Amino acid sequence: MTTERTFxxxxxxxxxxxxxxxxxxxxxxxxxxxxxQKRVRLTQDMAERFYGVxxxxxxxxxxxxxxxxxxxxxxVLEGTDAVAANRKIMGATNPANADAGTIRKEFAESVxxxxxxxxxxxxxxxxxxxxxxxxxxxxx
Length: 140
Ligand code: ATP
Ligand code: MG
Fold this sequence. Notes:
It contains seven helices and four strands; from the N terminus they run E-H-H-E-H-H-E-H-H-E-H. By secondary structure, it is an alpha+beta fold. A four-stranded antiparallel beta sheet has the order 2-3-1-4. The longest helix has 11 residues. Bound molecules: adenosine-5'-triphosphate and magnesium ion (MG). Adenosine-5'-triphosphate (ATP) binds next to strand 4.
């Protein structure tokens, strides 16, 4: 059991439906602390760089278009085993396969418009946090 930080995005489908508070309640009631948070509009360049690992995938162009279609909320979440804990709170990528009680099961619209992003490893979490936040913006 280690205290970790992970990176999270509340995606445009969720901000559009005013779900930021309900999603944050899921994090907080499941033991994660929101230690940094800001609402931003991603540029095309930012979205392409952020999802760069997927650039050869057939859904890449649509994914970038979706991620810049409205505001997002970028966050740093802190807690015990935060990377894995957050993936569990989020649920499976495709909401049809997500467990009951997860964010994606309750809120996602589709496999693309799936309400949240969460880092998939501690190393990626560090890089993704540094992409959006400076140290002084993270208050544990
Ligand atoms: P994220 O990285 O956003 O946390 P994830 O790790 O569960 O999600 P990835 O495989 O990294 O899933 O895919 C990144 C994002 O690309 C997904 O969250 C979803 O928005 C979109 N995506 C993934 N697979 C598909 C697909 N088959 N069709 C459309 N969009 C997809
Ligand atoms: Mg991913």
